[in-house]
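Just wondering, does anyone understand what follows?

——
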Amino acid sequence: MTTSTRPRSRGASIRHSRRQLGSTELVYLALVGVLVIGAVLVATTGGNLFGQANLVDMLTRSSLLGFVALGQTFVILCGSLDLSVGYVMALCSLIGATTMAGDPAKVPLGIIAVLVVAAGIGLLNGLIVAVLKVNPFIATLGVGLIIKGYLDTNYKGPAGDVPASFQAFGYTRIGFLPLSTAVMLAAVVLGILYLRRSRTGYHMFAVGGSMEVARLSGIRTGRVLVMAHVLCAVAAGVAGLLIAARFGTGSALVYSSGYDLDSIAAVVLGGTLLMGGRGGIAGTLGGVLILAVLDTVFNILQVDPFFKDVLRGVVIIAAVAIYARRQIDRKASRPRFDGGSPPGPPTPTPDSPVPVQQGVSR
């Protein structure tokens, strides 16, 4: 019996060692594929996708969407959603520009004003979702429409004046790396550490996995949801500051640029489940880079803007379909027994929901 059991146990361990790629690894593998295909297509027209101008364009595109998608990841991990980010960006660009009023000494005041207003909007979104139990789609869309009405009523065009010292945030480069992209990457690193090292970060995975189980385990789910929405709005506010730095003024028409849906697309493309509980910021960054590369390639090839949206939609649908199929295959191939040993507790990974234990401190 002993000799017959050992081969099965060894074979089972070998099978377990051959794990499928996680969603984060898969999205970066897709990014490499997109880069290779894009480089070949651009080369057929006599161009170079990896020329400095094109690299700067890709990184510049990724920085603005990256801030918004970073915040969107927090709320989607909690099983929520935020459709007000585009309106928050527009409002914050105007608040920052009008507060600075061309005076370099008022730059800190403008930044603080933007962060406070953005955090207040996120707090409002979170309270409506967590306390009033309004569907996040309806709640954040309603708040966004309120902001839109205010913008359309009070701003008929650009307003404010951003000092040249702060405009450097939008145009300064370190080699081929824009300063805004470097700041966005630093925010991504902080976001990853927040999710992996902080208690609230783990609670976000738990709330997204099952809010009822998280509540019964002692997690204050309302606080977690509110915090996720506050972080999302603050990230959108930083994106609004970046817009003001690039334009040199605030713009009320930013909300029509589609950053709300693009940020959701980047998060889902990065492997985060729209129902919450699984995913991460590292994958979101990969999704942002894929969309930025696609936009740059389409612009170089002079693809029709309407057809560009069709191609982006096809890529997003295909990626989500692949993720869904992998989840089905993974569940279907999960072994019932492991060499006769009783199954142990699952090991949490960044792409899997964190198990919630009883007695979690508040």
About this structure: The beta strands are 173-174, 177-178. Residues 1-9, 11-18, 335-350, 354-362 have pLDDT under 50 and may be disordered. Residues 23-37+51-329 form one domain. The CA atoms of residues 84 and 144 lie 4 Å apart.
